[in-house]
Amino acid sequence: MKKLKVYIAIGLDGYIATKEGNIDWLTGFPNPEGTDYGYTDFLATIDTTFIGNSTYKDILILSETFPYPDKTNYVFTRDATQQNTEFVQFISKGITAFVREIKAGSGKDIWLVVGGQLNGALLQEDLIDEMIIHIIPVVLGDGIPLFGGIAMEKIFKPTATKTYSSGVLELHYAR
Fold it and tell me: According to the UniProt entry, where is the signal peptide (predicted)?
């Protein structure tokens, strides 16, 4: 069975982006070590991505080429008219059942690639198995919350922590 994992960065106040979806605070954050914060190692553990539609649109703007061509990629959207592409299949209905079906499959794990609303919806359904959260020492004051502002209580067990010289704190949690 595959695990659904969140690998993400947040500000100190729990936001993943500004209200407008801007992540300049993250991409412009000083990284004197030139570290990838475990990204390469994490990417090697997954073969599937789940992406929210807004995040997908941002990826297309930020990247000259689609960054995960070697993965199976699903974009969740409310727009049932979106056409699949070479690297992406769009999912607009039965999201919870679809996620359960993919998780039941074999292979490497699944990366829930950002999307506050999608994060919240899948957390609410107890579908997230692990989280690797990088806390960036920046206060945004307002923005898109990590779990879409859905009020719920879910308990995870801390499994590891790492501190970087840049001030970034990496936290690992599991169900």
Answer: none
Contacts 24+ apart (CB under 8 A), 165-169: 165/32, 165/33, 166/29, 166/30, 166/31, 166/32, 166/33, 166/35, 167/136, 167/137, 168/9, 168/29, 168/37, 168/134, 168/135, 168/136, 168/137, 169/134, 169/135
Cβ atoms of 159 and 149 closer than 8 Å: no
pLDDT, tens digit, for every residue of 63-97?
A: 889 999 999 999 999 999 999 999 999 999 999 99
Task: Please write the tens of the pLDDT for every residue from 36-45.
Answer: 999 999 999 9
| Domains assigned to the chain | 4-174 (3.40.430.10)
Crossing angle of helices 95-103/116-124, nearest 10°?
A: 70
